[in-house]
Write a structure and sequence with these properties.
This protein is mostly helical. The chain has 9 helices and 5 strands. The protein has one domain. Helix 3 crosses helix 5. The termini are far apart.
Length: 254
């Protein structure tokens, strides 16, 4: 005698689906199901409240300010070097070349292109808020020429937020960063400072590269660094080694 299997409604939920052509559902029932689904969707939307971010206006302001900075950088870049549409498809002016005497390390072109998005300034504002920073707080921005757009975006965001940035920077840059001999990060920063786009510029300026003293730069690199510092009125500091460079910067912020 064949044993019958009995399944509860709960167990049936876990059975694999099967095609049953004999089973039909009336149009009326389908309509009711659709109506119930629509009502549930509307209720979920009504019960979900959205509020603007407390720093939304600052985020928008910082992004617009960054767009203005990009326009200035693009204009000056074109006065010195031709913009390469293959390397800089967004025509930001922040993208350099693959190799130059002040190239420190290899860099990824896509990363450099992505970094030119002006919305990064808004993202920095968001991060400052997440860190519970308040207007008047002092922050340190340690940067190089590798991602000049991000450096400028951070300065703009800090100033928009009401922070007091202390900037330490180096002239060396990885591939496709601010590594063009006559358009270094210091040139970009100082142009924006002189135009009133940013209100702070680097306080300590070092060559960068290995040991932060330019010892790993290519032939002719140190001369380019010296010229960039002189051209922009920056006092060039060449630390003995990396430990000395760190010690010097820590003393500055204490």
């Amino acid at each position: 005698m064949q044993k019958k299997e009995h399944f509860s409604t709960f167990h049936k939920l876990f059975l694999p689906p099967s095609f049953q052509p004999g089973v039909t559902i009336s149009t009326g029932r389908l309509g009711i199901l659709a109506l119930v689904s629509l009502i549930l969707l509307l209720l979920s939307r009504l019960m979900t409240s959205t509020y603007p971010h407390p720093r939304q206006q600052d985020m928008q302001k910082a992004a617009r300010h960054m767009e203005q900075a990009m326009g200035v950088i693009k204009e000056y870049h074109q006065q010195i070097y031709l913009l390469d549409k293959q390397l800089d498809p967004l025509q930001s002016g922040f993208i350099g070349v693959e190799f130059s005497p002040i190239t420190t390390t290899l860099g990824d072109l896509n990363a450099k292109i992505n970094s030119t998005n002006p919305d990064f300034a808004a993202l920095f504002v968001y991060w400052f808020y997440e860190l519970s920073l308040s207007a008047g707080n002092k922050i340190v921005i340690q940067t190089s020429g590798s991602f000049p757009a991000l450096s400028i975006a951070c300065i703009i965001a800090a100033e928009t937020y009401g922070l007091q940035p202390v900037i330490f920077s180096s002239a060396g840059a990885s591939s496709f960063g601010a590594n063009m001999p006559r358009f270094t990060y210091w040139d970009m920063e100082n142009i924006l400072y002189s135009k009133g786009i940013i209100g702070h510029r680097s306080k300590i300026n070092t060559p960068g590269g290995q040991n932060d003293n330019g010892s790993s730069l290519w032939e002719g690199g140190m001369e380019i660094v010296r010229q960039a510092a002189e051209r922009n009125g920056y006092a060039l500091i060449i630390p003995e080694n990396l430990d000395k460079a760190i010690e010097m910067k820590l003393k500055e912020i204490k």
